[in-house]
C-alpha cells in the first residue's frame, strides 16, 4: 500500500462449474483483488483446466493494461485487442517444466506501440517490476538468486 504497488501472480483458480482455471491474481494497493483467466490453453491443458473468456484488460493508475498468460500471446486475437486499443501488455510465463511442457520464461512488458519495455531472462527465477505512469512503462528485472535456476529444477 505504501508504494502503491499492484501485484500480479500466477495461480490456479477454483471453478465452481467444473475444471479449475489457470489464472493470474491481481492485488491492488486498496485491498481489492481480481483475476485474469488464461484464455488460450495449450494442447492437453483442456483435460485439466477450463479456458477463461474475459478480455484481460485492467486499469492501473489510470492506464488500461492488457494481460497475457503463457499461450495467450501466441493467439493473434489476443494481441489484436491490445493493438486495436493501443494498450501496454504484461505477460507472465513460467520458467521450468510443467505438465510435460518445457516453458520458455521471458515474462515481460510491451508499451502501447508494441515495443519491448522489459524482458526477463528465461532461465532464472525473477521478479519483473514495471512502473506505469501516464501510459508509459519503465521496468526492471530482479533475479531471485536464492531460488533454484531452471537448469536445476525438476518436475
Main β-sheet description: 5 strands, mixed
Order of helices and strands: EEEEEHEEEEEEE
Count of β-strands: 12
Helix count equals: 1
Low-confidence stretches: none
The class by helix and strand makeup works out as mainly beta
Radius of gyration based on Cα positions: 15 Å
End-to-end distance: 35 Å
Beta strand %: 35-45%
Mean pLDDT: 79
Keywords, please?
5-stranded mixed β-sheet, mainly beta, 6% helix, 12 strands, globular, 155 residues, 1 helix
Spell out the blueprint of helices and strands:
Blueprint lengths: L6 E7 L7 E7 L5 E5 L19 E4 L2 E7 L6 H9 L4 E4 L4 E2 L2 E2 L5 E3 L5 E4 L6 E8 L2 E8 L12
Parallel strand pairs: 5-6
Antiparallel strand pairs: 1-2, 2-3, 4-5, 6-9, 7-8, 9-10, 11-12
What does this structure look like?
With 155 residues, this protein is mainly β. Helix content is 6%, strand content 39%. The protein contains one helix and twelve strands. The strands form four sheets. A five-stranded mixed sheet has the order 4-5-6-9-10, covered by helices on one side. It has a three-stranded antiparallel sheet with strand order 1-2-3, with no helix packed on it. Strands 7-8 form a two-stranded antiparallel ribbon. Strand 7 and strand 8 form a beta hairpin. The longest helix has 9 residues, at 76-84. It is globular, with a radius of gyration of 15 Å. The termini are far apart. The mean pLDDT is 79.
Amino acid at each position: 500500500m505504501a508504494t502503491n504497488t499492484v501485484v500480479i501472480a500466477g495461480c490456479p483458480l477454483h471453478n465452481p462449474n467444473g475444471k479449475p482455471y489457470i489464472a493470474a491474481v491481481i492485488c491492488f494497493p486498496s485491498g481489492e483483488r481480481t483475476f485474469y483467466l488464461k484464455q488460450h490453453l495449450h494442447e492437453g491443458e483442456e483435460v485439466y483446466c477450463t479456458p477463461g473468456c474475459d478480455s484481460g484488460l485492467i486499469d492501473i493508475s489510470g492506464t488500461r493494461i492488457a494481460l497475457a498468460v503463457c499461450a495467450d500471446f501466441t493467439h493473434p486475437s489476443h494481441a489484436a485487442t491490445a493493438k486495436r486499443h493501443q494498450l501496454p501488455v504484461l505477460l507472465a510465463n513460467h520458467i521450468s517444466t510443467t505438465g510435460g511442457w518445457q516453458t520458455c520464461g521471458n515474462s515481460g512488458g510491451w508499451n502501447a506501440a508494441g515495443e519491448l519495455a522489459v524482458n526477463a531472462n528465461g532461465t532464472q527465477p525473477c521478479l519483473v517490476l514495471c512502473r506505469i505512469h501516464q501510459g508509459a512503462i519503465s521496468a526492471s528485472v530482479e533475479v531471485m538468486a536464492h531460488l533454484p535456476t531452471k537448469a536445476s529444477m525438476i518436475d
